[in-house]
Amino acid sequence: METYLKHKKLVALGFLLIHAIAILIFTRGFLLTRTELPIHSTCSDVSLSPCLASPRPNHDSSSGQSNQTQPKCWTKPVVDRVIIIVLDALRIDFVAPSVFFPEPKPWMDKLTILQKLAFANESSAKIFKAFADPPTTSLQRLKGLTTGGLPTFIDVGNSFGAPAIVEDNFINQLVLNGKRLVMMGDDTWTQLFPNQFQKSYPFPSFNVKDLDTVDNGCIEHLFPTLYKDDWDVLIAHFLGVDHAGHIYGVDSSPMINKLEQYNSVLEKVINILENQAGPGGLHENTMLIVMGDHGQTLNGDHGGGTAEEVETTMFAMSTKKHTTLVPPEFDTSSCKQNTDGKQICISSIEQLDFAATLSALLGISYPFGSIGHVNPELYALGSSSWNLDNSDLGNFGTQSAAKEWMKNYVNVLCVNAWQVKRYIDVYSNSSVVGFSSDDMSRISDLYSAAEQNWSSSVKHILMDGNGDEGSTNISALLKEQIAAYLNFFSSVVELARSKWTEFNLNLMITGFGILVISLILQFLAVFHGDKSYAEGSWLSTGAAFTLFIVTIRACSFLSNSYILEEGKVANFLLATTGLIKLRYAVMRKTMRKEAFMFLAMVSVLRVSIDIGLTKQAATSQFMSSSPSWMLGIAPDHPALTYAIEIAPILSVVILICVLYIAIAKAPSEGLWKYVTVGSMVSYLFIALLWASESKILGLDGLLQVTGGRNRIPQTVYVIGLVQLCLLASARMFCAEKDKNWAIRAVALVSACSSPVILLSGKQGSMLALVYLVAGYCIMRLEGVERRTTSDGQSKFSKLNPLCVMQWSLLSICMFFASGHWCAFDGLRYGAAFVGFDEFVLIRQAILLTIETFGFSVILSVFGLPLLVPIHSQTPQAHGEKRHQLFQMYMLSGVISATTVTATILCVTIQRRHLMVWGLFAPKFVFDVVGLILSDLLICLASAYHL
Amino acid sequence: MKEAKKKKPETSIGVSISALGAFSVYLITGLFLAVGFWVVRDKYSVDLISDPSLTLRLLWIIEFPIVVIIYSLFRRNPEKCSYFRAVGRSILGLISGALINALGAVSLGAPIGMQSLPKTIHWSFLMSVFTVVPATAVFGASWADWHRVFASLKPTGNIEYMILIPAYGATIGGWFGAWPMPLDWERPWQEWPICVCYGAIGGYIVGQMVSLSLMILLRKHKSLKLA
Hints:
The complex is a heterodimer of chains A (about 950) and B (about 230).
Chain A: H1 2-30, E1 33-35, H2 57-60, H3 65-69, E2 81-87, H4 92-95, H5 112-118, E3 125-131, H6 138-147, E4 154-156, H7 170-176, E5 181-186, H8 188-192, E6 199-203, H9 213-226, E7 233-238, H10 240-248, H11 253-275, E8 286-291, H12 307-310, E9 311-318, E10 334-337, E11 343-350, H13 354-362, H14 376-394, H15 398-430, H16 437-464, H17 471-500, H18 505-527, H19 531-537, H20 541-556, H21 560-564, H22 566-588, H23 592-619, H24 638-665, H25 670-693, H26 701-706, H27 711-733, H28 741-760, H29 762-781, H30 788-791, H31 801-817, H32 841-863, H33 875-909, H34 916-945
Parallel strand pairs in A: 1-4, 2-7, 2-8, 3-11, 5-6, 5-7
Antiparallel strand pairs in A: 3-9, 8-9, 10-11
Chain B: H1 19-42, H2 52-72, H3 83-108, H4 117-131, H5 133-139, H6 143-151, H7 158-177, H8 194-217
Organism (chain A): Arabidopsis suecica (Swedish thale-cress)
Keywords (chain A): Endoplasmic reticulum, Glycoprotein, GPI-anchor biosynthesis, Membrane, Transferase, Transmembrane, Transmembrane helix
GO molecular function (chain A): mannose-ethanolamine phosphotransferase activity
């Protein structure tokens, strides 16, 4: 028997390893990660590059006066001021003329002012089709736009909870270069850049139903700011179109009203700019950019990678008039005939290139992690200003002007290419999962080829050639050089995309396959060595019903709606099992009180889950908040506040009494008893802490006596650790393990419970009480559906799957009832700082994990032995008990692994779903962490008990 | 407690009913359900979706008398218990059944806010008419009969089939009817308690059909047992 059980401990360890491997493989394919580098570009870096440090000196004198006053950084600034108007979720067909689409729709051709400007003769404006990279959510997109990188679902960085961007970015570079920034609109910007804006007018973005607050606030501040000269870069972020899409969809009158409103706003903005565009005017050399951060589907959803979501648009206009000079080789425009027979063209741009292009236009250093390149067409819109000056002075023709532009552009690209190569090298060296060496050498080859060409010929042309002799030859050389750089950029971007945005389906399927196999193995392990189940009796109603519930729960994960309301679904299923138990209890005429009590506890949990769901709805963009559970009691009613203050303390006192009864009943058993007494002391401390924090008890002085508010929590942690050490050493060194099973389990659970209760806050003790009572009812109701006549005589009742199922459903309900949900904003970051003021990553992460999974995994796994129904004390019973405990652990492992397998299947199927990053991926992360943690704890628990 | 396990003597069974009789009972109850819907639509010009609580109230007020009138005919011990007593105890059964149904629904997750309170109340009255009222009319306070039929699932005689199977059908139908509620289809019928109502009515009708076919199939057997 001993070797058999030793073997069983290894079984638990084996499943931990198999699950870990399967999940690791799957995660490698699904959760794309990227390491954020804390390095920032500086102006002086450019001396390391092979490029010309400054543009040709003889042209400096001829450039505009404003350019001379500013210190040069990497490249010569070509525009003085930039106005960026972000219209959230701007589809390409809102801006581009309807002739570009199969059929005109009511929402098209509403922003007529942009089309008019872009397609006018002698235009200095252009419409671009802009491609965003998924995930197409506003926060991720703003991050991508400003860093010039590809944000992934998990950017491994130093930001713990706070969304502020720590990576080098365009906004940061602007500040470093002394530019002054003004921001208005969506408050996501101030979350991402808390300190960078000189002036900001943020408006809350999360109320999707409010179409106008953000926009009106923007408009109110935009026009006065346009007349001021105390800024260099203005950012206005309008949210109306996004919100109208979320609520009404694209084909709706609110959407069309919004677009018409924007048209008039833009018309007014452009009027102001043109009035001030004369020489010496405020907007003599200003660039206006109107852009979307991502598109949206016709239903107004976004987040995924479908064409509708990633295709957005950008309109750029310079206040200096000129004709476009981009050579046809680098022109990406696609043209159509409009109804008047006029040729109209729109170009295309990657959002990835936005940061690099704007940095080049403003003449600042490029963000360190940018992998985009300077877009020729957008750059040409601004850079035309000094070309015109040149042609005036030097009497160059259009041909030479184009060549002149190319000379500048090739130098810009040279700096750009050097910067991208530097980033790729540094990233590959410093990241945990860098690029493969094959890819790196391919990219290095491309870069060195381009650079060789640069230093051997092109550089000399730029240095001394005044371009008279063999102009066609030089122009061809320049074009060749530009093409070489563009080739390098495209292969870098391709590599980065495959690394950071594309799922590896093979890895995903392999991981899923391993998990399915382990599931089957674990299922067999449950029934291994159990002869009685082989006789066909195992397919009892209880087992069939368990199978039914597990299947329903697994299938429910295929729909995003059920994932959102997972707590309610689990509660529904738990209540269903409770009702079934009640029916059996009534039928057998026993335990009716327990069955009713169980249902009452489930009802308490559902109220708690409802409260949690309303919290979730306040922050989730997928849920509508429904305050329907409100009972109509004023929240500040004195009786209610009193009850809220007193109830947690009362629950702790009850818990102490329960523990006392538990150890008083048990025969004297030295160590285990002392450990449990330790928990009682911890509980007492917790009650003291809460009593001193409460306002109505007037025990404020207590905090001073105990030495600050951190002393008590720290004491509780220390007691918990000491208890665990004692239990572990007792298990290792004491041979008397055959005795008194229950008291050992009680000691372990109580040792773990005190930190969990403390971290969960005041609701913790009440939930623990509910958990305890419900668990007691499950234990009492175990086997109630068996025929007492036939099974009553057999000494050891068989494993009852329904009771393990109830226990695991109960712990899932506890997760949601304690105010959690499967999203990162559902983590209670405050809990990480109970007892500590300063931030230490590992310590705080451990506390956060204990808080998040405390009830649902830690107490659930350690509490499982208390459900074992055998109370006989004979040695034979003990062996049987251990076998049954092993089965129960395996069964609960099967249940949680089934859930995770279903989640993984669903994530694989829905990987292109628009909610994959908002909903499925967080759910996946929570499930997977929960599974690994519970596997680990099952290993520990089986080492402790078996 | 032990003697409750024994079968009740046959003498206590009241008026028995044939399969044809059961069919006509079902026809009448179904007809009145349809009349209820017709009244709601034509006289009050609302439906279950636009005004659930009014609709449900009218439905149970129309359905309740007919169920009581019919099932009281089949009451146990007709010689001891007058017809009006059976009607009277059905009213008590209606209220207590509604309470049980409401508590069950709340524990399963029905909304508990003030604005859904009337809906929950009228829904539970309708459920009570489907599940508890026929049994109170027939069994009264005879706990042994209740226990034998509802808990042990050992009905004897056609009338007990008529009580048991539609009641379970309505409950299970309502349980399944709750499934579409969390889906994000944003249809008005996904609101509590509309789809649960549809499910319960559907389950009730299915239960009636199942019990009818069981009666016909197993009519030869004297003591019927469920598989």
